[in-house]
C-alpha cells in the first residue's frame, strides 16, 4: 500500500523520540508497508541518507520501549529552510523524486515552528503538482510557542527540569546569612513559557523564585532594582528568574546582541543574566551571581514528565491515523478538555495557520507588577509535569538507544 518516511528537525527535547516511537507504532498497525527514517531532517532525503526503521524495530524487540525514554533525536536534526514554493528551485523536484524512489505515501516531520514551515511548503508544492503524498507535522519544542495546540511535546519535561533546578538553586542560595541575589537566566527569546515554569518551585518545600520576568512585557531596570531593594529589607537571599529575551519599552534586548543571526533570521543573544548581574552589583552592592540554564533541559531525560512522553507518543500515532484518513498540510494538535481531572483530546489544524507564528504567554497570566505569574498560569503548568517514566539503568547510568 506504499510507504512512509519520518524525520526530526530543530532543537532536541526529552520527548521528540517518544513522538517518533508513536509514528512508528501507528504505522506498524496501519495500511502502510515500510517505515523509513531520514537522517538529519529534510537534508537526509536530499542526500539519500535514509534508514529502514521497519528493519530496526524487527531486529530489537525492546527498541521502541527504550526509544520512548531516550532524549535528543534518534534520527538527528538539521536547521534547513526550504526556499519559497514559487521560486522554481530544483530542490523540490529532487525531494519529490526521492519520495517516488521510496514509494512514499506520507511524510511526517517532527519539530517546531521552522519544521512546520517545511511541512507547509512541501504540502503546497504537492498540491501544485497534484501529488497525492500526505504531509503531516508532529509538534515539538521546549519553548511551547507553537500556535493552536494547547501545549507542545517537550515543554512539560523541560518545565519539570527547570522547576526542579530552580528549587535546588534556592536551597543552595539560602544557606548563608549574607545578603545575596541569584539570577537564573532561562531560554526564551520571544516567549516566556520556560521561565514561567520556575513558578512551580513555589510549593510546600520551597519558597520559589522571588521574582519572574518574561519577554512578553517591557522590562525596566530601575523597577527591577527597586523590586530587589524592597525584598532585601525583608529577606536575606533573593532568587530571580528572567527570560533571555527580556526587552525594554523600546523593544531592545536587555542582553547584548551578538550581531549575528541564525539560519532562520533569529537574533543570537548573549547574557541577559550576566547583564543584570553587573547592574545589581553596581546599584545594590550585594553578593550577586547569574546562572544560565541554557540547553540543559533539552535532553534531561532523568527529569522527564510521564505525561509529556505519553502525549508525545499519542501525537505520533494520531499523525499516522490522520494521514490514512487523507489529511495533509496539517499539524497534530492537543486540546485540553479539563484541568481537574486533567484530560486532553487530539485533532489536527491547518499548517499554514501555525508555521512561522509564535504563541506568547497571555498578558492576563502575568501579574500587574510584571514580576510574577498568575494562578491561571500555575493551573496550566501543573498537569504537564506529572509522572515519572521507568528508566533502565546500567552501572548507575540510564540506558538509551543509539544509532
Features:
403 residues; alpha/beta; Rossmann fold; 2 domains; 33% helix
Structure description:
With 403 residues, the chain is α/β, with parallel strands linked by helices. The chain folds into 2 domains: 206 residues, Rossmann fold (3-Layer(aba) Sandwich), CATH 3.40.50; 143 residues, Rossmann fold. It is 33% helix and 22% strand. It contains 12 helices and 17 strands. The strands form 5 sheets. Strands 3-2-1-4-5-14-15 form a 7-stranded mixed beta sheet, with helices on both faces. A 4-stranded parallel beta sheet has the order 9-10-6-13, sandwiched between helices. A hairpin with a 2-residue loop joins strand 14 and strand 15. Helix 1 crosses helix 11. The chain is elongated. The two termini are 28 Å apart.
Secondary structure layout plus pairing:
Elements lengths: L2 E6 L7 H13 L6 E4 L3 H5 L3 E3 H7 L3 H5 L23 H11 L2 E8 L1 H16 L5 E6 L15 H19 L6 E7 L6 H4 L5 E2 L2 E2 L3 E3 L7 H12 L4 E7 L12 E6 L5 E4 L1 H13 L2 E7 L12 H19 L5 E10 L2 E9 L24 H7 L11 E2 L2 E2 L5
Helix pairs in contact: 1-11
Protein name: Pyrophosphate--fructose 6-phosphate 1-phosphotransferase
Family: Belongs to the phosphofructokinase type A (PFKA) family. PPi-dependent PFK group II subfamily. Clade 'B2' sub-subfamily.
Organism: Pseudobutyrivibrio ruminis
